[in-house]
Sequence to fold (380 residues):
Amino acid sequence: MTPTKIKQFFTQYKLLALLIAIAIIWTFFSMKTEGGFISPRNLSNLMRQMAVTGIVACGMVFVIIAGEIDLSVGSLLGLLGGIAAVLDVTQHMPLPATVAVVLACGLVLGLFNGFLTAYAGIPSFIVGLGGMLAYRGIVLGVTGGATVAPVSESMVQLGQGYLPPQAGMALGVLLFVLAAVLIWRQRVNLARHHLPVPALWRHAVRLAAIGAVLFAFVSTLNEYEGIPLPVLLLLVLLGIFSYIATQTVFGRRIYAVGSNMEATRLSGINVQAVKLWIFGIMGLMCALAGLLNTARMAAGSPSAGTSGELDAIAACFIGGTSMRGGSGTVYGALIGALVMASLDNGMSMLDVDTYWQMIVKGGILTLAVWVDVATRSGRR
Fold:
């Protein structure tokens, strides 16, 4: 295959290329671990690991689409997770109150980052770099530099709980029905506007593929304990963020700001407000991820979230979000998060040295950006 054809393939079939990459990664690790990698227990653990990075990536994809970057998310995740642990362990605050306080702190800190970027005119790279250092320092002060444990059983359930198998099957059926309704509505809308409607068999094959994936996903996780609650939350966020990106005015404005900020401003859109709320959403996602990470580990660690910003940014770039802004999808970022989590999990199972894990992840991030640059230059 020539370089030109490779560029065309990645440009037109990014999602398919990602799925092929995941299949190759899973096959390799499965062979090396004699099937242990794809066991229901390990896949359940993999999905829980992916959920934290995926939640942060949901917010990061909007930030990058808008043409900005946030390097503080790993430290902010650690800070908010540490606050949750302190409130739970030392203050004995009820779980609903702890969640509300942590979410409020995440929103405020996210809006603060957005204010510095959008209204104070400080480049987001510098705001994020300063936040990376400041938030890590604050979490060391909040926790006293020591692990805060053990958290309450109710909080542990947030990160280690499971959806009962029967409820998991019901959820799978509900998602399949929802997919069928959305595909049918798409056909109806195309016909209503006198646009070409794909052959019925194409949509039937697509729906069958969705059904097969859902069945495999639910049945595999049910073989262990059920669908982990963090994964359930991630699925909800996928639906919410995809709806915002594709069906709301705010979502369209995010893409417009990243594509051409000056033209967007001249069209009457408040670019500063859009950026402010993008960072606010990012703060909320850090709060959710921090809560789940503390619950999953059953403790608040001052080192939690270290390099979390790199995993989230890499997930977005691997998933097809352009480093130039104006292009990207939420589901692509989550598939990118699955790639990163699969590499982490598989290399840990093989006892690969930490420095090699860092080299591999850094190389994949560089490759993802190169693909973005190459495919975009190929369209000029």
Remarks:
- The chain has two domains: 36-161+248-378, 163-224.
